[in-house]
Amino acid sequence: MGETVRLLHHPTSQPCRAVHQFMLEVGIPFEEEVVNLMDGDNEKQSFKDEYNPTGQVPILCDGDFVVWESAAIGFYLNEKYDAPGNWFGATPQQRAIIQQYLHWHSTLLRRGAGAFFYTHFAECIWGDRDYSKEIEKGRHTLDESLGYLETWLTKSEYLCGDEISFADLMGYHELVSHVAGAILGEADWKEFPKVKQWFDKITARPHASTVNAMIMQVGQMRQDGQMIPMTRKTSLAKGTEITPGVPS
Ligand SMILES: N[C@@H](CCC(=O)N[C@@H](CS)C(=O)NCC(=O)O)C(=O)O
Asked: Strand, coil or helix: what is 57?
């Protein structure tokens, strides 16, 4: 496993951006491969067989070793490159709190991605339909999540303590998509001022603007009423549907 690791990702994907920013911040040398999610390249059987049976990104390849799920990728890279202790915790307690966040994240804040997906991407995939129920569900989940983030950020500067961790990058990049798509705006920031402060602090970090460039551009295009060309006919945000298996 002496070769450079490969990150298979897409810059519009929240968990991909979190891993990408982590790698840039830690200074991990890597090759990147953008997977064409817009045309469903990730759903080809050959892709699933080679990389990830779920077809999702991010995916990390280290020689013959392949790992998917953003938190598992971060965990692996943290150990392999002996990243500074703030990222995944320097003590058993810190490590537990970061893991605690990451588990919570995938059951709640991540599901709020439906608000962005059904507001902006669903129309580009399935055309002009009524997505209001899905948007409402995503928005409800997002609001519930923001309440928790605000509480935690009242107690410490970052989500798991006074130093930035991988948990912050995961939470932050969910919100970046919502900001890009104007799902989150001034009224929300007034309601969740600590979240706003924290969001701005992470935005000011090196690499955030590079990692965010495409989603900001895509979000602006959608706000301007432009379509994103996509030939896929399946969801990019699985798990946010109202009825499982039914796109809209
Ligand atoms: N729990 C996974 C979620 C990954 C995920 O949702 N990836 C999306 C992009 S944001 C994806 O690959 N969607 C394409 C698809 O499902 O076909 C992680 O954190 O890595």
From this structure: coil
